[in-house]
Amino acid sequence: MAADTPTLAEGYRRVAEWLAARAHPHRPVWLEQPARTVPEAAAALGVERGQVAKSVVFRHLADERAVLVVTSGDKRVDEKKVAALVGPLGRADAAFVKAATGFSIGGVSPVAHLHPSITLIDRELFRYERLWAAAGHPNGIFQLSPSQLAALTGAPVADVVQAVTSPCTDVCKIDPDSGWCLGCARSRDEIARWSGMDDDQRRALLAVLAQRRPGPA
Questions:
Q1: What is the DSSP letter of 70?
Q2: Which pTM value belongs to this model?
């Protein structure tokens, strides 16, 4: 389809032009296959999941602005830590993300948003010299360093991830027979409660999950 080519993908063009105007040394790359998730992007690029700078968007309850957390692809954002830094947060659905940033979920760039976002950068990204971030489209991606990310966004670097990370680094997939995630063996209720647990509670649940796998025959 023509709309899936880099010349006609509006979000991709906007990111490319934004980076060029700021003399960023790495132009966006158009992948042959879309990379909507961290595993897809890491596999396409042949890099570690942590080198994928994923964009997680929340809704700022005080003023309905987007709160963008750019985090390392092998980590999970701790919503409580983010809220402690920027104020109360709400869920950002696909329509909100598109209206606030101009990008669809799966292609949200850390730069060139339609409206200014409140942005935080995960300090875990600084484990790597080279990162890859979405370039406004699931097929678009561009290279940068953690320092370049901080300079381009003007955002503070912060501790924004879960100390005890989720067993699934991607989206959980529920087995309709067992009711457990195929990857981490958590139930829907346990997945929902995870973000509200402290580290001791998470460790206790991880011990339960270790006994639960591989699940029912």
A1: E
A2: 0.77
